[in-house]
Amino acid sequence: MERYKYLSPDEWKSITARPHTDTAALHATVRNILEDVRTQGDKAIMRYEEKFDHAVLESLPVSAEEIDNAMKSVSAELWDALTLAHKNISSFHASQHVATHKVETSPGVVCWQKSVPITTVGLYIPGGTAPLFSTVLMLATPAKIAGCPNIIMCTPPRQDGTVNPAILAAAKIAGVDRIYKAGGVQAIAGMAYGTESIPKVSKIFGPGNSYVMAAKQVVSLQDVAIDMPAGPSEVCIIADDTSNPAYVAADLLSQAEHGSDSQVLLITTSESMADKVEYEISGQLKALPRMDIAAQTLCNSKIVIVKNKEEALALSNMYAPEHLIIATDDNAVLAEKVVNAGSVFLGKYACESAGDYASGTNHTLPTHGYATAYNGVNLDSFVRKITFQHITEEGIRHIGHAVEVMAENEHLYAHKNAMTLRIKDIINE
C-alpha cells in the first residue's frame, strides 16, 4: 500500500480521486448487445449466454423443479444463515415505513403524500467466481416489503445451464416471483426492453462488472430507471492507537478480495498503527484463496497518516466512501461528523462483512464518490411518492391571488386564467 504523511488539504484531491478509464470502446460493445436483444429478444440472449457464459440454453426461465432441487442441495447451515440474514434485513427495512400525514398548508388547502410500490422491478445478481446470493436478499427483501407485485431476477447460468443453488435459495426466501438465466449486458437489455420470456421492468437494481454498469447507464437514459450509478467497491477505515490492527487489516483485505479494481483506504493518526496494520496484512494475505486479487488491489490502495481526528474526518468526507469503518474507541463522537458515506460501521466489532450479510442494513451502496449525492438502497428505492392536494373555496380565497400574481409575472397567462375563473365563480356565488 502506498503511504502518505501529513499532506495538506490541498493535496487530498489526488488521494480521493478514483481511477477513470476510457469507456468509448466499452460503450460501443454494450450498445451493440443492447440493440441485438431489443430486436431479437430471447434468441439474442441465448446466443450471448453461449458466447460469454458458455451455457447452451433451450429457454431462459428457471423452472419450479430447478428451484426445488436447489432447496435440497443447500446445506442446513447455509439455509439457517440465509434465514437469519433475511429476518434482520426485513426488520431493518420494515422500520422504514413512513405513515401518511395530511398537512393543511393554508386554510382550505390540504396536501399529503403516499407511497406506491413500483409495479415491476428487475434484480440483477452476478454469478462468476463470487455468486452474490447475499445481494438477492438485499434487493428482493425490501422490494417485497414495499409491496412490489412483480419482482423478477436475472442471473447468469453456470456452464451446465443451472443456476447457483444458493442464489435460488435466497430468491425463494426473499420472495422473488420469477427468475431468468441471463447475465451481463444481455440481462440488462432483457429487463429494459422486455423479451418473449422476460417482462419489461420499470427499474433495475443490482451490481455488476463495468459492462453491466455501462449497460444500466445507457438504458437509464430513456428506457428504464436504475438504482444508482456505481463503480468498483471500496472501503475507508479511520484508525488510531486504540484500534485493533488485526481487525483493521482483515477489514481492508475483505474489501480488497472483491476485485482488482476495488479500493481500500486507511486513514490513521498513528504511524505505529499503520506499521502494525501492514504487518498484519502481510500475514493474513497469505492465507486467502483470493490472495492474488487482494494483492493486486492493495498495490493501488493507500495509507494516509493525518495530524488529528478532525483531518481524518475531513479527508473521509471528501473521499465519500461506499463503506466507512470508524475503528476507534471514540467512534460515537466521530460518527456525528460523518457527512458523506454509503454505510458506516462503528467500533472494533463492526466489520464490513456484518453489513454485507446479516446485520440488516443494505449492502447495495453508492461508490465512486457518489455518496455525496446518493444513498444506498432502502425501502424508498422501491416506491414512488405521489403527492395529493385538495383545495376548497376557502383555500382559493387564501392562495388564489398569489397564484395569479406569480403566473402573470412568469408570463404564463393560461395558468393565471385557470385560477382567475375559480376566483370569479366564488365571488359571484
Write the layout of secondary structure elements.
Elements: E1 2-5, H1 12-16, H2 24-40, H3 42-53, H4 64-73, H5 76-94, E2 103-106, E3 109-117, E4 120-124, H6 133-146, E5 150-155, H7 165-174, E6 178-181, H8 184-193, E7 203-205, H9 210-219, E8 225-226, E9 234-239, H10 245-256, E10 263-268, H11 271-285, H12 291-299, E11 302-305, H13 309-319, E12 323-326, H14 331-335, E13 343-346, H15 352-357, E14 383-391, H16 393-409, H17 413-428
Parallel strand pairs: 1-11, 4-5, 4-7, 5-6, 7-8, 9-10, 9-12, 10-11, 12-13
Antiparallel strand pairs: 2-3, 3-14
Could you please describe the fold and organization of this structure?
This protein is of the alpha/beta class and 429 residues long. The chain has three domains: 24-74 and 117-226, Nitrogenase molybdenum iron protein domain (Rossmann fold); 231-375, Rossmann fold (3-Layer(aba) Sandwich); 392-428, no CATH class. Helices cover 46% and strands 16% of the residues. The chain contains 17 helices and 14 strands. It has helices at residues 12-16, 24-40, 42-53, 64-73, 76-94, 133-146, 165-174, 184-193, 210-219, 245-256, 271-285, 291-299, 309-319, 331-335, 352-357, 393-409, 413-428; strands spanning 2-5, 103-106, 109-117, 120-124, 150-155, 178-181, 203-205, 225-226, 234-239, 263-268, 302-305, 323-326, 343-346, 383-391. It has a six-stranded parallel β-sheet, with helices on both faces. Strands 6-5-4-7-8 form a five-stranded parallel β-sheet, sandwiched between helices. Helix 10 (245-256) links the parallel strand 9 (234-239) and strand 10 (263-268). Helix 2 (24-40) packs across helix 8 (184-193) and helix 4 (64-73) crosses helix 7 (165-174). The longest helix has 19 residues, at 76-94. It is globular, with a radius of gyration of 25 Å. The N and C termini lie far apart (79 Å). The relative contact order is 0.14. The mean pLDDT is 94.
